[in-house]
Amino acid sequence: MWRCKRMFLRTNPRSGFTLLELMIVLVLSSLFLGAVYETFIHGLRVVDAADERAEVDTELAWALDRVTRELAQAITFTTADSSRVVFTVDLNDDGTRETVEVVLSSGRLVRKESGREVVLVRNAQAVSLSYLDLDGNTLSTPVAAGSLDDIRVVRLSVTGDLEDETVTAATAAFVRNQFYAGAI
Fold first, then answer.
1. ω before 142 within 30° of 0 (cis)?
2. What's the domain count of the chain?
3. 98 and 113 in contact (C-beta within 8 Å)?
4. Would residue 18 count as lying in a domain?
5. Tens digits of per-residue pLDDT, 41-97?
6. Which of 73, 84, 155, 163 has the fewest C-beta atoms under 10 angstroms from its C-beta?
């Protein structure tokens, strides 16, 4: 029993750490852990920003792809100005013409069809539409009613908003039905 007690008793009063040494280690450890924490938080912010940018890029690409496909199949245009286009198209090949409107509304790029409204881009700052004729000449906007049948190419540019940057995506739709209508 005497041996067990002796293990826990100090034989040299100078062995071990002083209070000052423990405080220094505590301060240095705190500084190190603070730096590691700040690096970790910065990394999370960078990942969040990259995720947000990728989400906006994907949303813009999807919206432009959908609008381009529908514009390429347009049968007639009823309105064509710099921020809004209205056209008819047979979306499901049933012989029925649906009227589709693409417009910037309250900071969103919206597609309207048959009373339904679908938000294509949530944080859209600007939409720019321009129209070309068969010779590649830009038609003045709004395109006059008598010139709507001359539209052969529709250029669409959408600017999306991030917290600290803007992203712009653009495309051009070659209106197939209009090309063939002039050839017959």
1. yes
2. 1
3. yes
4. no
5. 999 988 888 888 888 788 888 889 999 999 988 888 999 999 899 999 888 888 888
6. 163
Is residue 89 domain-resident?
yes
CA distances from residue 113 to 55, 102, 118 in whole angstroms, order as listed: 25, 9, 8
* Residue range of the domain that includes 57: 32-183
Q: For 133-162, how does the pLDDT look when each residue is reduced to its tens digit (9 = 90+)? A: 988 899 998 988 888 888 999 999 998 877
Contact 95, 108 (CB under 8 A): no
Cα 34 from Cα 38, distance rounded (Å): 6
Contact 151, 178 (CB under 8 A): yes
22 located within any domain: no
Check if the beta carbon of residue 10 is closer than 8 Å to that of residue 16. Answer: yes
Instruction: Compute the distance between CA of residue 171 and CA of residue 184 in angstroms, rounded to an integer.
Output: 28
Q: Are the CB atoms for 135 and 88 separated by under 8 Å?
A: no
